[in-house]
Amino acid sequence: MTEDLSPTARPDIMVSIRDAFGIDVDGSVPGFSRPGEHVPVVDASYRFDPATTMAILAGFEGNLRVLLQGRHGTGKSSHIEQVAARLNWPCIRLNLDSHVSRIDLIGKDAIVLRDGKQVTEYREGLLPWCYQRPVALVLDEYDAGRPDVMFVIQRVLEAEGKLTILDQNRVIPPNPFFRLFATANTVGLGDVTGLYHGTQQLNQAQLDRWNIIARLDYLEETAEVEVVTSKVPWMAEAGRAQMLMQMVRMANLTRTGFAAGDVSVVMSPRTVISWAQNYRVFGDIDFAFETAFLNRCDEAERPLYGEYYQRVFGREPSGRAPEAWQRVQVPGQEGARGN
Question: What positions does the domain ATPase dynein-related AAA occupy (predicted)?
Fold first, then answer.
């Protein structure tokens, strides 16, 4: 077991909110002086949403259960990870897809070979393993979890709740520095939009056990431009900065159209990044848009997306493949294929 996951490890420094997260707030939160192998890598270009960051920090500082809700691509999971990274707090993510069972979460008996003999041995699941250590456990896609799995989680939503392992007749108290977070695309009432197939209604008694429910939305235009630029730096070069702003405005038009019920697919910041990367590959902004986004849209809605595109770029997407391989040149990559 690594030192950062020792059950006896505890925060040993106080981290300034203003210095670590760029938020104009007096105060500090506990953290670890040294990063371990389970601490996420710091993304120096990450932009913190102040309200969401304060909610997450409250979870770390006060041992509160925090649920982040928002549409895809808003950066819910990465927000928690980047807060943990700056606190040097070990962080483990678990995607609650329909294949995660109660046994996966709690543990099970397994046949192992010991001293040349087969013996039955209990293998601890992820939940009790994390519960006994100073770990921030992030339950991704919380609204997609199976009902039997969700009821296992319900008990640990209480800060002082003990985890009962019936198969072992054990009652496990929580580590004082165990923290629990979750992310969800819906608010637990089911998916009425059709965007998030596989999600389901959540037990309201369980939702009531979350201390903090924060909503994370898409960034303002200038902030989103900075995020995309941090991931695709060459878009900040002369002649492309204005184009990137147009790309972000196009994405915002899809979000406005979705909110009005006109279209059913929205462009997330992740899609804009893919668009920029495809432009780097093909050298054609229209073809990059089609391959990053338009080709996965409903045929009946494509004219609306074409109208949005025309508002921003003054033309509809060409619908044609590039006439030549015109990979955009990036300094230091003159020998890249296709140049």
Answer: 66-191
Residues 6+ apart with CB under 8 A from 20: 86, 87
Mean pLDDT of the chain: 83
Whole-number Å distance between alpha carbons of 252 and 258: 10
Non-local (6+) Cβ contacts of 269 within 8 A are 73, 74, 75, 218, 219, 224, 227, 228, 251
Residue appearing with tokens 């041995």: 121
CA distances (Å), origin 186, targets 4, 8, 155, 161, 213: 33, 37, 22, 26, 12
What are the structure tokens assigned to 330, written together? 């990036």
pLDDT band at 40 (very low <50, low <70, confident <90, very high): very high
CA atoms within 13 Å, Cβ hemisphere of 158: 10
Q: Of the candidates 34, 44, 76, 26, which has an alpha carbon nearest to the alpha carbon of residue 269?
A: 76
Q: Is 54 left (phi over 0), alpha (psi -120 to 50) or beta?
A: alpha
- For 260, the token pair is 């009005």
Helix (H) or strand (E) segment spanning residue 247: helix 241-259
The model's pTM: 0.77
HSE of 131 in the Cβ direction (CA atoms, 13 Å)?
25
Q: Can you say how many angstroms the Cα of residue 263 is from the centroid of all Cα atoms in its chain? A: 24
106-141 residue pLDDT tens: 877 667 777 777 777 777 888 889 999 999 999 988
37, amino acid identity? E
